[in-house]
Write a structure and sequence with these properties.
Structural class: alpha+beta
Number of strands: 10
Shape: globular
Low-confidence stretches: 14-39, 48-77
Number of helices: 7
Helix content: 25-40%
Strand order of the largest sheet: 1-8-10-9
Strand content: 15-25%
Mean pLDDT: 75
Largest sheet: 4 strands, antiparallel
Distance between the termini: 56 Å
Order of helices and strands: HHEEHEEHEEEHEHEEH
Length: about 230
C-alpha cells in the first residue's frame, strides 16, 4: 500500500484541454487581416462552413435555398460544363430578364430560376447555361457583383461534384468583420491568396445588415491555409 501511495504521489496532473490549446487559439487570433474597424478580423478553418451553392443537377422547383457563395474566375475547364450559379436575386427577377442580361455576353442555352414547389416564389438563385465555356467564363469575370434590380448578384461556377461541396476542404470562417464589408469586398480581399469557389458575408434576413462574419471556400486547402497564416 505504501508503494502504491508513493507512485500516486509521483503522478503529475494532466493539463486541461482548454489550457493545452489556448496558445494555439491565441496564435490564430493574432494572425488576422486588416479591416476598416477597431476590431480585428479573425480567420480560421475551425468553424463549420456554410454550404456552397447547390448543384445544377438538383434544380427541382422545391430545392433547397440559394447557395452560399460569391464567385471566382477559376479554371473553367475543370468544371466541364458552361453552367453558372447566380445568387442573391431579387424576388421579381425571372428567366426573361436574366436571358436579356446574360445573352449580351454570349449565346445562352437555358436559364432556370429555382422556385418553391408550392408557392412558386423565387428562391433567390438561378442557373444560367451557356453554349460555350468561354462565354460562361467571360460572364463570371465581367458580371459578378453587378446590379440586377438594385441588388448585386453573386456568380460562380455550378458545382456538379457533391464531394467537393461537402468535403469542407478549403473552407474558412471569417469573423469580426466591419458592418460595411460586403460580399465583393470579402471576395476582393481573400482572392489574393488563391482561387475562390464561393464566399459570402452572412446577413440578417430582416434588416439585410451584416452579422459580422462570413465564409470563404477556396479551390485548394493550400490557399485556405495561406489566408489563415496571413
Amino acid at each position: 500500500l505504501k508503494n502504491k501511495k508513493n507512485k500516486k504521489d509521483r503522478l503529475l496532473p494532466c493539463p486541461s484541454t482548454s489550457s493545452f490549446f489556448s496558445p494555439l487559439i491565441q496564435t490564430l487570433k493574432n494572425k488576422t487581416m486588416a479591416a476598416p474597424t477597431p476590431n480585428q478580423t479573425d480567420v480560421t478553418n475551425n468553424e463549420p462552413s456554410e454550404a456552397p451553392a447547390p448543384s445544377s443537377n438538383n434544380m427541382a422547383s422545391g430545392g433547397g435555398g440559394g447557395g452560399g457563395g460569391g464567385a471566382s474566375a477559376v479554371d473553367a475547364g475543370s468544371f466541364h460544363t458552361p453552367s453558372l450559379y447566380v445568387g442573391d436575386l431579387a424576388p421579381d427577377v425571372n428567366e426573361s430578364l436574366l436571358y436579356e442580361i446574360f445573352s449580351a455576353v454570349g449565346p445562352v442555352a437555358s436559364i432556370r430560376v429555382c422556385r418553391d414547389a408550392v408557392t412558386r416564389r423565387s428562391l433567390g438563385y438561378a442557373y444560367v447555361n451557356f453554349h460555350q465555356l468561354a462565354d460562361a467564363e467571360r460572364a463570371l469575370d465581367t458580371m459578378n457583383f453587378s446590379m440586377i434590380r438594385e441588388k448585386p448578384c453573386r456568380i460562380m461556377w455550378s458545382q456538379r461534384d457533391p464531394s467537393l461541396r461537402k468535403s469542407g476542404v478549403g473552407n474558412i470562417f471569417v469573423k469580426n468583420l466591419h458592418e460595411s464589408i460586403d460580399n465583393k469586398q470579402l471576395y476582393d480581399t481573400f482572392s489574393l491568396f488563391g482561387n475562390i469557389l464561393s464566399c459570402k458575408v452572412v446577413t440578417d434576413r430582416e434588416t439585410g445588415g451584416s452579422k459580422g462574419y462570413g465564409y470563404v471556400h477556396y479551390e485548394t486547402a493550400e490557399a485556405a491555409n495561406a489566408a489563415i497564416d496571413k
